[in-house]
Amino acid sequence: MGSSNTDSGSADKALDDIYDDYQQWELNTGGETIHAKRVSGFWRNLKWLTGSTWLLFFLGYFVRWGDRQAVFFDIGNRQFHIFNFTILPQDFWMLSLLLLFFALLLAASTALFGRVYCGFFCFQTIWTDVYTWIEEKLEGAPAKRRKIDKAKMDFTKFRIKFVKHALWLIIGFVTGVSFVAWFYDGIQLWKDIFSFQVGSTAIITISMFTVGTYVLAGFLREQTCFWLCPYARIQAVMIDTTSAVVTYDFHRGEPRGRIKKGQSEEERTTGDCVECLQCIAVCPTGVDIRHGSQEGCINCALCIDACDAVMKKINRPTGLIRYESLDEIEGKEARSLFKRPRVWIYGAIMSLALLGIAYGLSTIDAIELKVLHDRQPLFVLQSDGSIQNKYILKILNKIDKDVSVTISATGPEGLKIIGADKPVKAHHGKINPHTVFVRVPGENLTAETEPIVFRIDTVATGKEIFFSDRESIFIGPRR
Ligand code: SF4
Ligand code: SF4
Predict the structure, then answer these.
(1) Is 70 found in the same domain as 216?
(2) Do 95 and 60 share a structural domain?
(3) Is there a smaller number of Cβ atoms within 10 Å at the N or the C end of the chain?
(4) Domain check: are 383 and 466 in the same one?
């Protein structure tokens, strides 16, 4: 008997906990700021973990490679450095393939798991999460925040709001600096900032990012997802009833109804949803997932954590809200990956894009040679009977420093190159044109055109010597 009283006492306490936060929520049209409650749980931890990949954005530009930044988008010299690779404009097709890969990765992940990118990786939702975390640390739980919002301005409110907005602006500023750093040389940028020597382009870009981040993550928050994000509009065509999305199991939950204190399991006629509204209280976009899949849901799964916590308190199985497809909720068998052509097509194109990038990187040359045969005139007959052709050699230097190259050629017997007796300077990141003349004794030519191969070799400045060769033709008189 004593034990049963204790059980019902703790059950009533659990109900008090659950219903304490009860509020009537309305459709989120942006009229009021959403102050979402924070719950702990598996999905909350996963969100922190995936969101922390953005630390790469803030810290990655400090990684050095030799005397420069390891990943450096050098817009001024129109070249991208990625560790050992230097990508020049003629190799930009690889960046296009990379963009294609990520676009299709987004499409494939949406087809499989809905807006999982929005919930766990998108900079808008991650930054908003950090901004609201700061807000909670300074202003307290949602009810207290709403109270502070409505209270008249006094010194305490001013102090709290001032600190909050200052921290938000600092994060916005660091975001702007981090963005510019990838194009500037990050360490130099910080030095220039502290010595007030930053150029106007960097100042404008950093200012735009500071204000943009502050407004989007601090004020607009979920409204950005509702009204500004184009992906929210098109995701509906990428998912279907087989996509695993955050879903409320209405078969199990309905008819929903609150538990009364002291009510036994046998007396209950309602489903597992106890109408506590915790799932809405934690939702950063203010969505009621029990109304079904909807545009405002970013699939962050925080409502799963909230509902699971409630289910544990009332001794019901967890998973009333869970990641599952509508088909499975309806009792149909999950469609296997093999029977989803869309995902296969996305996967095939992504694999091709990756193969293309791998091919491009493996065949990227440190120096490249192009040979243009001068057409006017095609050849010149010299007074000693030899035939002369003129060529413009275009030497592309992708090494991250200037080098000297020697020029040689093989072809008809007795050929001589004029203009290649000394090494030629090839400036890094540039196409360096150089004109040479090739002379061949007339009697050594057996045909009107004969093949000739030019070759350039870097003059050793370190351990590695690079070379490139290119075939062209030597033209003589008709035979
Ligand atoms: S779905 Fe879960 S969290 Fe939401 S109201 Fe029902 S019981 Fe509460
Ligand atoms: S309904 Fe759930 S999954 Fe969707 S945004 Fe809200 S908390 Fe995240």
Answers:
(1) yes
(2) no
(3) N
(4) yes
Q: How far is the CA of 286 from the centre of ligand 1 (A)?
A: 14
pTM of the model: 0.78
Domain count, the chain: 3
Residue-by-residue DSSP string for 255-283: SP-PPPTT--TTT--S-S-----HHHHT-
Domain boundary among 220, 253, 284: 220
- The residue whose CA has the least distance to atom 8 of ligand 2 is 300
Judge contact between 458 and 416, C-beta under 8 A: no
Among 290, 305, 308, 329, say which to mutate for ligand 1: greatest number of ligand atoms within 8 Å of CB. 290
Mean of the per-residue pLDDT values for the chain?
88
Whether 334 and 196 map to the same domain: the answer is no
CA distance 41 to 63: 34
CA of 118 to the centre of ligand 1 (A): 23
Question: What would the pLDDT profile of 332-380 be if each residue is shown by its tens digit?
Answer: 887 776 677 888 899 999 999 999 999 888 877 788 899 999 988 999 9
133/127 Cα distance (integer angstroms) = 10
Residue 212 lies in a domain: yes
Q: What is the distance in A from the centroid of ligand 2 to the CA of 232?
A: 14
pLDDT class for 428, splitting at 50, 70, 90? Answer: confident
> Within this chain, do residues 345 and 438 fall inside the same structural domain, yes or no?
no
Task: Please indicate, yes or no, whether residues 443 and 312 belong to a single structural domain of this protein.
Answer: no
44 bridge partner residues: none
Question: 254 and 187: one domain?
Answer: no
Residue entry with tokens 């350039």? 456
Distance (Å, rounded) from C-alpha 304 to C-alpha 248? 9
Residues with C-beta less than 6 Å from any ligand 2 atom: 246, 282-283, 285, 287, 289, 297-303
Look at residues 164, 191, 220 and tell me which one is the last residue of a structural domain.
220
Residue of higher predicted confidence among 86 and 141: 141
Q: Please, what is the Cα angle at 350 between 244 and 324, to 5 degrees? A: 5
Please state, in angstroms and rounded to a whole number, the distance separating the CA atoms of residues 390 and 443.
19
Both tokens assigned to 140: 């307290």
Q: What is the mean pLDDT of residues 309-328?
A: 93
Domain assignment of residue 92, given as a range = 88-110+234-364
At 64-94, the pLDDT tens digits run 988 889 999 988 877 888 887 788 777 888 8
One domain, residues 377 and 455: yes
Q: What is the pLDDT of residues 146-203, one digit of tens each?
A: 999 999 999 999 999 999 999 999 999 999 999 999 999 999 999 999 999 999 999 9
